[in-house]
Design brief:
The chain has 391 residues and is an alpha+beta fold. It has helices at 12-23, 36-41, 50-58, 63-68, 88-91, 102-115, 236-247, 297-316, 322-349, 357-372, 374-384, and strands spanning 5-8, 28-31, 47-48, 70-72, 75-79, 82-86, 97-99, 120-121, 125-130, 138-143, 146-151, 154-157, 175-190, 199-203, 209-213, 219-225, 259-273, 276-277, 280-282, 288-289. 45% of the residues are buried. It binds flavin-adenine dinucleotide and 3,4-dihydroxybenzoic acid.
Amino acid sequence: MRTQVGIIGAGPAGLLLAQMLHQRGIDAVVLEARSRDHIEGRIRAGLLEQGSVDTLTQAGVAHRLHREGLVHRGLELRFGGVGHRIDLAGLTGGKVVTIYGQQEAVKDMVAARLAAGLPLLFDVADAAIHDIDTNRPRITFRHDGRDQVLDCDIIAGCDGFHGVCRPSIPPADLRIFDRVYPFAWLGILARSPPMSEELIYARHADGFALATMRSHSISRLYLQCAPEEDLAQWSDDRIWAALRTRLGASGGELQEGPVLQKGVTAMRSFVVEPMRHGRLFLAGDAAHIVPPTGAKGMNLAIADVRVLVRALEAFFAGEGGDLMDAYSATCLDRIWKVQRFSWWMTQLLHRYDGEDAFEHRVRLAELDYLAGSVAARTALAENYVGLPYAD
Ligand code: FAD
Ligand code: DHB
C-alpha cells in the first residue's frame, strides 16, 4: 500500500488532519489501534475554543456541532464560598467557547471519512515506523490477520501520549520537559441537569471541583483526588457529597442523578522538542500534554494540525519544505503559552498538601486580585477562549 501521508492514530488530531488533507487533494491513510466503538465511546474533553470551532467548521465536519453544541459566554470561579463571573465574551470582544464532547467530534469525523470512502483502518496491531530519516518512510502493521506495509512520503504521529511515534525518535535528538502534579481528577458523567448554565471552577479547602456538562440533561463533574485514588472507595453518595461541599452548592442547586461513567485522570505537563524528526511529524498529545484545568488538550491538537496542514500543502504543491522546517517552532510558540496558562490555572485552583503558609497566602491574594481586577480577568479570558492563531 502507498499513500502521501500515513497517519497513526484516529483521535481528534489524526482525524482532523486526514479531513483537512482530503479537502486539499492530499491522500492519507489513518491507522488506529482501537475499535471504532472504543474511540467513539471514549469520554474525555468537552470544551472547544472559538478557533477550534471555526477550524472544524472550515473542515466541513461541524454541522452537528453547530446544532448540538452549547455556546458559553462566561464562566464562574468560586472561592472562599463566593462566586465570581468571568465575562468571557465581554472581555474578549465577543469570543465564546462551546461545549461539545470530544467523542462527538470524533464520531462526526469518522462518519465523514467513511462516507467519503477514504481509508481509516481500526484494530490495527503492532504499528511501527521505519526510515524516517529518508524520503520514503514506511509503516508496518498487522490488520485483518495480515502483516502489511504502508509506503509514505510523510508520517504523522497523532498517536497520543502512549503511542509509538515519539519513542521511535532517537532520545538524543529530543528534549523533554515534564511535570507531574501531586493530584488527579476523579470525573463522573451523570444523568442530571447541569448545576448552572455556565461552568463552575471551585477552589475549596478540601480540594478543587469543576461542574461542567454535555447537554441540558447530562452533567460532567470533576473532583481533585489523589493520583493513586482507588475508585472503589468512592461510592456515588460520597462523590455527590464531596461535590456539594466543594462547589458550595445550596439546596436544589446540584441535582443528583444516575452516574453513567467514572474515571480518574492523572495530571501532567509535558512537552517534547522538536516535534519533527526527518519525515515524521508529531501532533497533539503525542508531543504535549497539559493538565486539564484550562481545557486545552484537544484545542492544542487542533492548532497543531492547522500548522501541519499548511506545511504539507506547500510541500506537496512543490513549494519546498520551509513551512515543514518551521513546523515545530511555530507550534511550540503556542504550546508554551498554553502550557503556562494550564499550569497557572492548575496551581491557582488546587489544594497542595504540605504547601507552606507563604505560598498559601500568595495564592489567596492572586484569587482576590482576579476578583477585583478587570486586567487580571481579561488575561484569564483571552487565554481561556484561545489565543489567536499565528496564521
Ligand atoms: P488522542 O485522542 O489520545 O488520540 C490518539 C489515538 O491514537 C487514539 O485513538 C489511540 O488509540 C491511537 N493510538 C495510540 N497508539 C497507537 C498505535 N500504536 N497504533 C495506532 N493507533 C494508536 N482537552 C480539551 O481541549 N478540552 C477539555 O475540556 C479536555 N478535557 C479533558 C478531560 C479528560 C478527563 C481527559 C483525559 C482529557 C481532556 N482533554 C481536554 C485532553 C484531550 O482529550 C486530548 O488532548 C486529546 O484527546 C488529544 O487528541 P490526540 O488526537 O492528540 O490524541
Ligand atoms: C471540561 C473539562 C475541562 O478540563 C475543563 O477545564 C472544562 C470543561 C469538560 O469536560 O467539559
